[in-house]
């Protein structure tokens, strides 16, 4: 029996692709950067303790309204980090900026970053950098996406002892 293709990826291939893409970005984000300044976990724990919580809630709200938000935020982070480092320059508007570059005109998800920035500026003015907001938002979007993936039940048990070799071969002939 010939398997028909519709021109799109099958679900396992797409999930495998996303898994490797997420793993790649995770390695990039946590790898030591030649940039100036020391990165640390809990950087805002004293200056704005609820920063990560506010960003996470903004991302979850946006992602629950629009399921394409996680991909948009991950793509924003990619375009920001692979052009002269993770400096949030992709968020800047105006002539001659990364955002106005023809390669970036299809980028989306800026409204989620803007919403998170507005909330943070209200509670912790001039504290959390836009680069950190973008990195945390992409992280939280991926976490949101992976948490809500449907996983099929596993653990099927095929009782092979009830088949002899001949009947097993006959039963599995349809797989050719």
Automatic annotation (TrEMBL):
Q: Which reaction does it catalyse?
A: 2 a phenolic donor + H2O2 = 2 a phenolic radical donor + 2 H2O
Note describing how the cofactor binds = Binds 2 calcium ions per subunit.
Site residues, Transition state stabilizer: 75
Instruction: Output this protein's name.
Output: peroxidase
Q: Which organism is it from?
A: Cannabis sativa (Hemp)
Give the domain of life. Eukaryota
Which cofactors are named for this entry?
heme b; Ca(2+)
Q: Where is the Plant heme peroxidase family profile domain?
A: 38-152
- Top-tier EC class: oxidoreductase
């Amino acid at each position: 029996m010939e398997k028909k293709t519709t021109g799109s990826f099958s679900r396992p291939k797409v999930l495998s692709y996303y898994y490797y893409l997420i793993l790649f970005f995770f390695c990039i984000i946590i790898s030591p950067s030649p940039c100036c300044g020391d990165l640390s976990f809990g950087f805002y724990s004293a200056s704005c303790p609820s920063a990560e919580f506010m960003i996470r809630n903004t991302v979850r709200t946006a992602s629950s309204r629009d399921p394409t938000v996680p991909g948009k935020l991950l793509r924003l982070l990619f375009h920001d980090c692979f052009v002269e480092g993770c400096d949030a320059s992709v968020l800047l508007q105006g002539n001659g900026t990364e955002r106005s570059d023809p390669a970036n005109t299809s980028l989306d998800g800026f409204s989620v970053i803007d919403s998170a920035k507005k909330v943070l500026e209200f509670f912790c003015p001039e504290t959390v950098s836009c680069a950190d907001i973008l990195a945390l938002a992409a992280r939280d979007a991926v976490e949101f996406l992976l948490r809500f993936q449907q996983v099929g039940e596993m653990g099927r048990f095929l009782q092979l002892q009830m088949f002899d070799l001949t009947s097993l071969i006959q039963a599995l002939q349809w797989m050719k």
